[in-house]
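PROTOCOL LOG
Step 1. Enter all chains and additional molecules of the complex.
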Amino acid sequence: MLSISKQYIHTLAKKGLRADQRKMEEFRKPITVEYGISAKSAEGSARVKIGDTEVVAGVKTEVGKPYPDSPGDGTIMVNVELLPLSSPEYESGPPSIDAIELARVVDRGIRESHSIDFKKLCVTEGELVWTIMIDIYPINAAGNLFDACALAALAALKDAKFPKLENDVINYKEMTEISIPLEFLPVSCTIHKIADKFLVDPTRDEELASDARLTVAFTEAGKICAMQKGGDYPFTEEEIDKIVNLAAEKTSELRQFL
Amino acid sequence: MSYKRPDRKEDELRPMEAKVGVVKNAVGSAMFKIGKTIAVAAVYGPRELHPRFLQNAETGILRCNYNMMAFSGSGNRVRPGPSRRSKEIALVTTKALEPALDLSEFPKTVVDVFIELIQTDAGTRCAGICAASMALADAGMNMKDLVCAVSGGTVGDVPVVDLDYSEESYEGGAVDMPIAMMPRNGEITLMQLDGVISKEKLQEAIKLAKKGCLDIYKLQKEALKAKYKEE
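Step 2. Run joint prediction.
Step 3. Record the structure below.
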């Protein structure tokens, strides 16, 4: 990014201002969640838009042998692909480190909150368990993919129904009415630090000018279930306190869109 | 064995939708939906082509990429990344679009077209080509014509247009023949065929597909105009 653009964003941030005239703690509008965007193919699917950022997510299910150390547990898998369709910044090829981090942060939010009871994904202990595969793709990557991807994954999970299992083989042509056992929605929010100020829902330029970020996922009861710090600069303990409080407030706002 | 379509006439396409300008970051973009198949295409470029030995000093190069999203298949999850199938489709898509395009103003560059399938019910390469040609037009490329694509063929020996997945896998046998054409001069830029068919039925199938292409052409033009009406 040009240093002059970075300077501009920092100068504005110092005054508590943003280039698109939003408040520091304000998300872009509109935020929309659309369900069943690939209903013919996927077990569950959703499209999330936050301002110009657009992300789609889909859920597929498979059955297979459980891991030997957890014979009674099914599992989930989260994959993010930063499509070159969605931004001139992305290139074809094996997943970039950014895509891997994104996928792992979304995965952790869902997995570590225990919002999906893996025991309920077991068909026959030691023999057959469900794997829930969540694939997330940005269509237009215009900043804050962390929150958009996490939201899209939750929406697709909420939308998903299991296909029919016949003699331990999946019949994808017949869906059941059984939803994925999702106890609650672990919504996350990413707070960025720019020039000692904190802001939410960065545009791509703000992301590039950001000093540091912290993603915090919350359970419905307001408990923290996953965190990830990124960026080049450190945080103090007081700053983390502040971020967690702001993220708590913002996630309850985001929750209303699901 | 005679086949009767349950919900449409033999020469009728599935319901379509087309929208231009669906990816803001791209130079040009479009969505094309036919039945339950949904394709999104985005164009980036002309931009410098690397590595340099791939550059052409005379003209820009078109490079298409075709990808099915992991959840877009009707059975198991589709493994991410290029497959032999997706690479071949990307190649024939490039060849289907190239004749309509003039990139001689941009030597040494590449124009990238990325096609993503969000949901599939057969006819994905054709839907991809339809979306891509609108996206190229939206990007303001020099073009002779739009490219329209649809499959013709036979199901149980009955000539039809725009086969869906259940028809492609019809027990009594089916022939699937994706075709792309430039409607202004009627030239065909994509031609593939799977299945066994007589010369007579082939002619009928081509006629049906060409007629289908004209319906698509109309919709593509409307979608392109609609973008500028809004603005």
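Step 4. Note key features.
The longest helix of chain B spans residues 199-230.
Chain B touches chain A at residues 22-26, 36, 38, 40-42, 44, 47, 65, 67, 69-77, 80-81, 112, 114-116, 118-121 (CB under 8 Å).
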